[in-house]
Fold:
Amino acid sequence: MSASHPFPAAAFKAYDIRGIVPTALNPEFARELGRGLAARAKSAGVSTLVVGRDGRLSSPMLASALEQGMRDGGVNTIDVGMVPTPLVYFAAYTLETGSGVAVTGSHNPPEYNGFKMMMAGATLHGDSIRDLRDEVAAGPVTAATPGTGREIDILTPYLARVLGDIKLARPMKIAVDCGNGVAGAVAPQLFRGLGCEVTELFCDVDGTFPNHHPDPAEPHNLEDLIHCVKTTDCEIGLAFDGDGDRLGVVTKSGEIIWPDRQLILYARDVLERCPGSTIIYDVKCSRHVAVEIRAAGGVPLMSQTGHSLIKAKLAETGAPLAGEMSGHVFFKERWFGFDDGLYTGARLLEILSRSADASAVLEALPQGVSTPELKIEMREGEPPALVKRLQTEAKFEGATEIFTIDGLRAEYADGFGLARSSNTTPVVVLRFEGDTPEALARIQQAFREQLLALAPNITLPF
Structure:
């Protein structure tokens, strides 16, 4: 790297590489990263890497430089063009490289971009990304013999595979909001291919995101979709994040069906064909998820938050399904086990098409009174220390079970509270749920007392 563009060590995050263009991420860095990934690929016995990119303005130049670096490092590249991240994973699996990079800023603001990486069938995260950072910073070598490059169409085989797998019991009328993200390049034709009548919202790919941010986890980003579904003859609305690996769902009455409630529906369906199976969910999900998995004859397994960690748990257990509160859903039954918002949307429609009233099915899913994610802002390094003390020193009277796999989650007969350290920013993330407003308030009070006893100076967001 040069004096004008110092090495962006801070861009190497827990699950991916992410930063502002061009100060952190630029073609010079992308080329170096490509050479580093080539060296890693060779040591893993991988000869070819797949590269795809989202619709951000900076993605073509970053993808091109990344591929050049990979070839400089002696590895072959397959360019699948501008596609959602799940199609990069699909290419890696079906072309049997098990390895690839999606150049994407996901749901970050327009000036950001990033790289999601998988190698030899495993998503890079945690220590693997930290090691890669050190390898790239050291300046990877250029190979004596460069790799070759080719371009392929992955959209046609992807659509054929999904449309061959999923059949709707009846045609449906749906609204699809892609927030001008790259999912817009695939979603309309996928759902029309399933037999749906599709009303498109912001499905033209535009890296400036001129309408609203492509993040269905934020309720205000769903306002356009809710208005469309309520005022037209659409049955439900589907929303996708910036790179198409997460799904948002809204009903005819405008209710948002959060991903943990969606997971209950998917689990019931999968368990009909895979009775007794393990279903994985993350620590942020509603306690109703475990209750409903058991009721459907499955075995609930709580996991740490993070799509890379859940993928690893999926591979370890052989579970047919996993999901997390953020909206990443992983179908192993009938699919590959990677997170794919488009395929998840298709599976949802397959289930809902069996009923005359899709919204009624969704709104009947159990739910408690819950908070969104709440955040305690702290200085770098402080959140893990506070959560560690909470795990070892706090007392939660009346809790039926305490989980410490990812922060501290106190389960009660009528709700739960969670405090965990974010893997990406210096905050403690909190989430609360109760069967009633009174139960919610009681659980929040218990956490308020324990947190303030350990850190009297923090500002609580509840």
Notes: The first helix runs from residue 27 to 43.
